[in-house]
Design a protein that fits this description.
One of its GO terms (biological process) is phosphorelay signal transduction system. This is Response regulator with CheY-like receiver, AAA-type ATPase, and DNA-binding domains. GO terms for molecular function: DNA binding. This protein has five helices and five strands; from the N terminus they run E-H-E-H-E-H-E-H-E-H. With 122 residues, the chain is α/β, with parallel strands linked by helices. The chain has a single domain, classed as Response regulator (Rossmann fold). It has a five-stranded parallel beta sheet, sandwiched between helices. Helix 2 runs parallel beside helix 3. The chain is globular, with a radius of gyration of 13 Å.
């Protein structure tokens, strides 16, 4: 059975690029336009990995990861931050919230898929 990955980003075109790359590698994808939408999409849904932007309206990626980790069923779901933020302080905030990897945009799909393969839950 294919593993499901949630893509959380306010850019529809970026969600599409990530989704195409993941589907090409055999994954199922769900999409959300911000952190709040992401939390809503997770209700009753099994996901094996989440890819999230940092800078989004409504709920940013760091807050999203913090809220996600409070949910018992998603406490161990790995999160990859896919963002334009390259600064160490933002990376540290992401790690403190529970993000497992940090991929800076613009990204190579192969680089992202390598991170996905390493982190996706069995």
């Amino acid at each position: 059975m294919a593993k499901t990955i949630l893509i959380v980003d306010d850019s529809a075109s970026l969600r599409q690029v990530v989704s195409i790359a993941l589907k090409g590698a055999g994954y199922e994808t769900l999409e959300a336009c911000d952190g709040q939408d992401g939390l809503n999409k997770l209700k009753g849904q099994k996901v094996h990995l989440i890819i999230s932007d940092v800078n989004m309206p409504v709920m940013d990626g760091i807050t999203f990861v913090t809220e996600l980790k409070k949910l018992p069923e998603h406490r161990f779901t790995p999160v990859i931050m896919l963002t334009t933020e390259a600064g160490d302080s933002m990376k540290q905030r992401g790690q403190a919230a529970g993000a497992k990897a940090w991929v800076v945009k613009p990204f190579q799909p192969a680089q992202m898929l390598t991170a996905v393969t390493k982190l996706v839950m069995p």
